[in-house]
Amino acid sequence: MGFRNHRRLAFTLAFVLTGGFMTGCGGDKAAQDEVDLAPIAISDHEGAVCGMLVREQSAPRSQVIHRDGERSFLCSIGDLLAYLAAPSPHGAPARVLVEVLQPTQDPAESHTATHPWITAQEGVYVVGIERKLVMGAPVLIYRDRAAAEQVIAGTSAKILSWDELGSWWAKQQGGTPH
Description:
Layout: H1 3-17, H2 20-24, H3 29-33, E1 62-66, E2 71-74, H4 77-85, E3 93-99, E4 117-119, E5 124-127, E6 139-142, H5 145-152, E7 158-160, H6 162-172
Antiparallel strand pairs: 1-2, 1-3, 3-4, 5-6, 5-7
């Protein structure tokens, strides 16, 4: 066995013995249970992708909670999707939270006040509505389909699920969905 194979074997053993395999695959349930998965206030956090002050950006914003407890805040859903597409030294997210807009809020305007948080999978996403002062393609989020339908009435905007949003985003970026 050559030096390279010994090194590979040593790395593999160290990885497995330290629980790296189990943690990486989501098998370390006890460690995940210790991570606080509740949303926290945006406060003075900087965006993990753009470095801007998140609270100054228009909702919907997001936060990603990793299995190791690291929490990343994002200024927009576009930033969230870019962040999730890149590998993270903190591993896979334990939870992804997004702010939801109220159907009575003008979707074309900026809304920097705090909004309720839900998991990304619960959200109903609207694409195709113009917004002022938003970087990239705007993505709006509502708590339910009825609210989203109320907002898009009379427009060519589309309603998407979380899974459909990933495919839409990949097409916007000129790629194919994962």
